[in-house]
Write a structure and sequence with these properties.
alpha/beta; globular
Length: 543
């Protein structure tokens, strides 16, 4: 086994958080950084064309190709579970939607972790630090950062009508979904630069790549972490990995930072002997630290895709129905980087309460001027729109577990969607709200007709059943290495993201979220990396 060298920090995973960490830590030229990525470079054309997510998800060049276990709450269905396997990680294949969640999300993190620095007023400056908002700096937004936020470069009459209809049922029109205003609707802002996807590899890693103290290695599969027992207990001293058909070790003098995501990070910990001791022993792995919370607490947003046929209004179904229409779409993008090829998967967003008893919006709509049976299928041959609705704070909890001790074997993933009565009730209320919006006067001129799930589902019990038939992931897994207090037996990391019971090891990605954010999870993950890098650099200055 060859040595890949000795570094101050090793970062495992060049995804959303890993690229931010590499940028921020390598600014200190006294530190040496090794960044390891299992996937390849982000030089695939379809990564950068916004609609190219259709070619990246389910593609082994850019996706880990995970699948869930058969889900009882989804009538025994197994779902594809995309995770980016390329520089930029899931920011290279996601929906590009810039969302932070709600202020209460972060106040709740502060309470469960016992650390006031996670409160909304404390993390807002971290969001602003990396942001380059199209409207410039303000109370809510930053300017000049790496993470460009732009308006979308198109609009649709059918979506404008949906927004008008939402206002008619009490969901107001607002200008900014990221200003902590609560309920309301607006077109999503996106992480693009002039109609081209901006992933974290371009935004954060590319500016840092030429720094002599940063080494980037792609095509490197981390098999396990390496440990050493000393007078102060067990410490992580580096990693063992393979690349180009050869086996390597690399050592970290200061820390190893796991940034492999909500599936990858718990999987690597478990392969390395950190997790539920009984489960590890069942796979022949000697426990290094008995942390039963590793892989537990999996949370995700389940989207319920309601589809309505319409008349007398353009939708993408008809614009892309023939070769001539597709050619015009391609020409518009080639000339102006606008039109359907610049589209995020969802264009219009709306936040609402499932009932008046909710203290904050607990539902998020992603509305699209198109429809299809399921992801990857062709568009329908009739004009229609989709109004997907997610329960933002589900009570269902799943897990990520070893399938075997082979690091190349994918882990078992069980989100346990709709496994609680509260989630089933909220799903029924969400579908009922979608119907109320579509039945409002503003959409009447387009004569909407429910295609999915279908008007025959009427009672609360029937609507909950329909949710199990049409529900699918919206690709927001979090929580599998959750942050918590020292007396929380299921907490994996402390409020500084240090792994409990093991020195010189942190987890820095969406897996540390104790509760999922109330919205898309990519930009909150960037904030987590910003905060971790700040903590690490402050620690170095003090040492």
């Amino acid at each position: 086994m060859e040595s890949a060298g000795e570094y101050d920090y090793i970062i495992v995973g060049a995804g959303t958080s890993g690229c931010v960490l590499a940028n921020r830590l390598s600014r200190n030229r006294k530190l040496t950084i090794l960044l390891l990525e299992a996937g390849g470079k982000d030089d695939y054309m379809w990564i950068h064309i916004p609609v190219g997510y259709l070619h990246c998800i389910g593609n082994p060049r850019t996706d880990w190709l995970f699948r869930t276990e058969a889900e009882a709450g989804l009538n025994g269905r197994s779902l594809m579970y995309p995770r980016g396997k390329v520089l930029g990680g899931s920011s290279s294949i996601n929906g590009m939607i810039y969302m932070r969640g709600q202020p209460g999300d972060y106040d709740r993190w502060a309470e469960v972790s016992g650390d006031e620095s996670w409160r909304w007023d404390q993390v807002l400056p971290l969001f602003r630090r990396s942001e380059d908002h199209y409207a410039g700096a303000s109370q809510w937004h930053g300017a000049g950062g790496e993470w460009r936020v732009e308006k979308q470069r198109l609009s649709w009459k059918v979506l404008d009508a949906f927004r008008d209809a939402a206002a008619e049922v009490g969901i107001p029109k607002i200008g900014d979904l990221n200003a902590g205003l609560g309920a309301g609707s607006a077109y999503f802002d996106v992480n693009q630069r002039r109609g081209i996807r901006l992933n974290t590899a371009k935004a954060f890693l590319k500016p840092a790549a030429q720094r002599p103290n940063l080494t980037i290695m792609t095509g490197c599969h981390v098999e396990r972490l390496l440990f050493e027992r000393g007078p102060n207990g067990t410490v992580c001293i580096g990693v063992q990995f393979t690349g180009n058909g050869r086996a390597y070790t690399a050592t970290a003098q200061r820390e190893t930072l796991l940034a492999a995501g909500a599936v990858g990070s718990p999987h690597i910990l478990q392969l390395s002997g950190i997790g539920d001791a009984g489960e590890l022993q069942r796979h022949g792995i000697a426990p290094v630290a008995d942390l039963p919370g590793v892989g537990a607490n999996l949370q995700d947003h389940l989207q319920l895709r309601t589809i309505f046929k319409v008349q007398g209004v353009k939708t993408l179904n008809m614009r892309a129905a023939n070769a001539f229409g597709k050619a015009l779409i391609g020409l518009e993008y080639a000339l102006f980087q606008s039109g359907p090829m610049s589209m995020a998967p969802s264009q219009l967003g709306a936040f609402a309460r499932s009932s008046t008893a909710q203290p904050a919006p607990d539902l998020q709509f992603h509305v699209q001027p198109l429809s299809l049976d399921k992801f990857g299928d062709p568009l329908h041959r009739f004009p229609a729109f989709t109004a997907s609705v997610c329960h933002l704070q589900p009570s269902s909890r799943g897990w990520v577990r070893l399938a075997c001790s082979d690091s190349y074997a994918p882990p078992r993933i069980m989100p346990n969607y709709l496994s609680t009565e509260a989630d089933r009730k909220t799903a029924a209320l969400a579908l009922a709200l979608a119907r109320r919006i579509v039945a409002a006067p503003a959409l009447a001129k387009y004569r909407p007709q429910e295609f999915m799930p279908g008007p025959h589902y009427q009672t609360e019990e029937q609507l909950a059943q329909a949710a199990g038939l049409i529900g699918t992931t919206i690709f927001h897994p979090v929580g599998t290495c959750r942050m918590g207090r020292g007396d929380d037996p299921l907490a994996v990391v402390d409020s500084r993201l240090r792994v409990r019971g093991v020195g010189k090891l942190r987890v820095v990605d969406a897996s540390i979220m104790p509760f999922i954010t109330s919205g898309n999870t990519n930009s909150p993950t960037i904030m987590i990396a910003e905060k971790a890098a700040q903590d690490i650099l402050e620690q170095d200055c003090q040492s």
